[in-house]
Fold HTH-type transcriptional regulator.
Amino acid sequence: MNQNISVILNRFEKLEPEERAQLKKRLAPEKLAVLQSFMLLLS
C-alpha cells in the first residue's frame, strides 16, 4: 500500500502544472481530496 502511494505521488510531482490541472479535473472528488491530503503531508 505505501509503495503504491509513493509511486502515485512521485508521478504527480513530475507532472507539469498544466498536466496537474487536467488530472485534478478528471479525478473524482473523493480521490482528489485524498491526493491533496498527501500533497499537504509532503510539503
